[in-house]
Predict the 3D structure of the following.
Amino acid sequence: MRLIVDRDRCEGHGVCESAAPDLLELDEHGDLVLLAEGELAPEHRQQAADSVVICPVAALKLEG
Ligand code: SF4
C-alpha cells in the first residue's frame, strides 16, 4: 500500500501533516514532502489513512 499525493489538487493546507507526522511535511515553501516513499510500513498505515480522510481537497489517496 502506498500513499499518493495529487500535486495538482494539493493546496498546502498542511492538516495532513498533523494527521501523519511520520509521513508528510510541508517544506519552507509550503510544498508537501512525502517522508516515506513507496510501500508503507505497517505502523504507518493508520496515519496514512487518517491523512487521506482529513485532506480538505482530497489530494491524498491510498493505492495498492
Ligand atoms: S491536507 Fe491536502 S491540500 Fe493540504 S497539504 Fe495535505 S495533501 Fe495538500
